[in-house]
């Protein structure tokens, strides 16, 4: 796990060594073990290293192939790098790093050959010294971030936007079109960002540049289109195979030459990961839980910690610490924070860095098997009640965090990217069954916001997070081999009939079992008290802080140029009437704190 930077130009840029060094310094928190730069004419590559595999200097980056043709910088892990290495002939390896395997594979067999085989999380920049080609490559699900700017023969890229800005070659220009997207989705969807002309490399894509100019955007992976709707199947056999696949995904992510641990929230997903890790680890695994006084899941995390005799750590967050950390973490993220629990997750990551370097986390389990019962049953509700003109319209009304009505009322530029993405997602929905569309949506869009949260909260503390439930081979298996009825299962035929008269918020987890198959596997590992309880999100007491948030909003939003005039009092009062009252106001405050932090200074030099 590391951070990467680069500048590629078809003309001379002054102070290029100084610029790439400044870029490295800006993302130094991503890797404190070593750093490196490579300058070749009008090209500069930079790297910050957090050593996980091959701790020797042979893993140092930027790394250049034996022939001198290719150099790369790489952030992430290739979990099956030894298998790929065994398929490569006629290359003299100098060390044991996955970085060198990527380099050899691209040089001898090409980018597509490597990507067909790679299982991992990665952001890669590969530069050919002779042809001037550059490939920017991002993993299938977008676990590792990669941003870029290109214009008039100049390409600048980095693991973080601040790396691009610190090059001194780009101005920060606020992209107010992104506000609507953020308030709906909690993050800005690919390829856009809050910065004009700075973009994300899209998940499952790689970009081909030559002499700083974009040649082609290659799509090498997408969420599966196959979908299992079988009604007759052998549940026990499917459970056995799913258990094997999940265990394999976890064991792949235990590959490390540094200490490893687990987040342990007390929910099914992190508890199951902890159990599998502990059964495959010599010695006791470190586990971590965080919460607020009177609002936490300590009780359930302790049940699993005691069951598996882990080295368990509980962290209690004081209210004032939460507010103290807020602004600092916006700086690490280069964006408004997405969800209130980003702050405690960051605090927990800072604490766990005292003991470990790698942590396994449960993101992706809900998306894999339908864990958000209310929204994953939305097609069933639509089919039985037809509460909107189309299923997409109904789904959007249930999913989006701040309603379209509220965004239309309070934003100066309310539409943003809305029409563009409405068209894309309607097409996805029109080419899928209702249930399949929901699952594909969550893997194509929802999970990306969670992954930005994971990357920021861990990397600000120089910790590598790994997410076994987002193994692409596991995802493909679940889509193709696990019937829908084993993802969300009705408790009886009578329960399904009764649910037709209700909405999911009234029946989910009472009449059905979301993530059914995962819970069946969990019964082989976990105390039933952890499995049987209803799903609880990561609790943050925002609603009880509503008065304080109102004061902050009244003070900080009064001059926000992106809000409609004289709307602050109305916004505060309207937020109180929303289901997510505290979170909505918190999100509006985040936007303005972020805007003032980045767009009131001069970046170019």
Keywords:
605 residues; alpha+beta; Glutamine Phosphoribosylpyrophosphate, subunit 1, domain 1; Rossmann fold; six-stranded antiparallel beta sheet; 26 helices; 19 strands; 43% helix; 17% strand
- Name of the CATH homologous superfamily of the largest domain: Aminohydrolase, N-terminal nucleophile (Ntn) domain
What CATH architecture label of the largest domain applies? 4-Layer Sandwich
Q: Specify the CATH class of the largest domain.
A: Alpha Beta
Strand arrangement across the biggest beta sheet: 2-3-1-9-8-10
Total domains: 3
* Rough outline: globular
Radius of gyration over C-alpha positions, nearest whole angstrom = 24 Å
Q: Tell me the distance between the termini.
A: 30 Å
Provide mean pLDDT, rounded.
96
Number of strands: 19
- Which stretches of 5+ consecutive residues score pLDDT under 50? none
Quote the CATH topology of the largest domain: Glutamine Phosphoribosylpyrophosphate, subunit 1, domain 1
Give the helix/strand class. Answer: alpha+beta
Range of strand content: 15-25%
Query: Number of DSSP helices?
Result: 26
What's the main sheet like? Answer: 6 strands, antiparallel
Amount of helix: 40-55%
3D structure, described in words:
The protein has 605 residues and is an alpha+beta fold. It has three domains: 2-219, Glutamine Phosphoribosylpyrophosphate, subunit 1, domain 1; 235-372 and 440-495 and 512-532, Rossmann fold, CATH 3.40.50.620; 543-598, no CATH class. It is built from 26 helices and 19 strands. The protein has a six-stranded antiparallel β-sheet with strand order 2-3-1-9-8-10. It is globular.
